[in-house]
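Morning. Coffee machine broken again, so started the prediction first thing and wrote up yesterday's gels while waiting. Chain of 258 residues, entered below exactly as on the submission form.
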Amino acid sequence: MAVRAPPRTPSLSVQASETALPMWRESLWMMDWMALRMSSVYRGHGVRPGNGDPIVVVPGFMCTDHVMYEMYGWLRRVGYDPHLSGIGWNVDCPRTTSERLERTVTRVYAKTGRRVRIVGHSLGGIIGRHVALERPEMVSQVVFMGSPIQEVHAHPVIVAAAVALLGTRSSILGVQCLKAGCECDFTADARRPLPSSVQHAAIYTRGDGVVDWHDARERDPRRNHEVGGTHIGLVYNPRAYRALGNILAERRFGGIAA
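Came back before lunch.
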């Protein structure tokens, strides 16, 4: 049996995964949504009530805040103060997108007087991590949902689509954006550890058909929460919602010293 190498230094360069990713399963994401709607978790049953903390939810690559509406409403129902990211379409250079998210976090922090928690799906988690690095005095926690926090090893089709899409936006991004040769300081920042004042945890699924699930885990296994389902469906998955509720209510789950 082949032994997987230890987690690598985080990198934002997009590469095709050497692991066979079950991308076809992503067509089943609606099953996750339907399961959520039928779940008692959706109605807040068995979920510990929130403390009113502000939470900013961040969509993944090629998505907008619209895909986070379900989670936004759920967080409000269970007792938190949710906010949309305000980043628009998540297709720009991560540096540009993170600046937009930072403006949202700054506004929410000023409005509430509380440090903000960030819940990011896929690339949204990486962008949220960057904001936490830049403004740790404003961010108390980052929860990754299917985010490639070790290295971006994605399905070859996704890689091709990303390179094609981002390459056509060279007037904004530069031709090397998200490629191995990218020298953007955003990529370099991905290698910096989060400060100990920022708690963090990861929710992932081995059925992920977009991101290699090995790379969606924290190095410390105590920070990891496996839920099953699809990559796209993580933002609707009832098991992911229950895990998120636990992480948010029990800050110690995400607060292990780095």
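The CA atoms of residues 201 and 223 lie 5 Å apart. Going to sketch it on the whiteboard this afternoon.
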